[in-house]
Amino acid sequence: MTEELKMAEGPTCACEAAIIGLYACSGGSNVGQMANRAAVELTKQGRGKIMCTVGIGGNVSGIIKSAEGTDEIIAIDGCPLLCARKSLERAGFTVGKNIVITELGMKKGGSLDLEENDVKEMMTKVEAALSN
Ligand code: SF4
Q1: For the segment 89-130, what is each residue's pLDDT rounded down to a tens digit?
Q2: Is residue 31 in contact with ligand 1, taking CB distance under 6 Å?
Q3: Chain-centre distance for alpha carbon 131
Q4: How does 45-63 read in b/e, with b if 16+ C-beta sit within 10 Å?
């Protein structure tokens, strides 16, 4: 799509539509931040595209449109409260896969500064969970 066509479509999120949408809760805890980091790393690997989860909860039209353009939606939550998944489902989307960081062994609580060793270990588990 040309830049002109993109502009003509009106205001949309810069993240745009992706084939696999990665929606992290990005919550205010170590596991929420790990969920966000997982979405970033998976995007860098080309396994999907990080999207704007909070815009789903806010019913922001451009963000909803981007979600409608995905072929698959993956929710990445920090903990069993499943905020990302519930936001998506409340908006009427089907979540194909739901990664929950605490279920992969990371305990909730502690520093928001993630240790790179922990990130590496968690990414191995996230990637394995996505392959199942
Ligand atoms: S799923 Fe857990 S970590 Fe993520 S935003 Fe909700 S309460 Fe916070």
Answers
A1: 999 999 999 999 999 999 999 899 999 999 999 999 999 999
A2: yes
A3: 16
A4: eebbbbbbbebbbeebebb
Please report whether residue 1 resides in a domain: no
Q: Would you call 79 exposed, middle or buried from its count of C-beta atoms within 10 A (0-12, 13-18, 19+)? A: buried
Among 7, 12, 34, residue whose Cα is nearest residue 119: 34
For residue 100, what are its two tokens? 């929950």
Residue 77 sits in which domain range?
A: 11-131
Atom 5 of ligand 1, nearest CA residue: 27
Q: Is residue 108 part of a domain?
A: yes
Please report which confidence band the pLDDT of residue 11 belongs to, taking 50, 70 and 90 as the band edges: low
Q: Best substitution site from 81, 82, 122 to test ligand 1's pocket, by max atoms within 8 Å of Cβ?
A: 81
Q: Is 99 in the pocket of ligand 1 (CB under 6 A)?
A: no
Domain count, the chain: 1
The percentage of residues in the chain with a pLDDT greater than 90, rounded to a whole number, is 84
- CB 83 near ligand 1, within 6 Å: yes
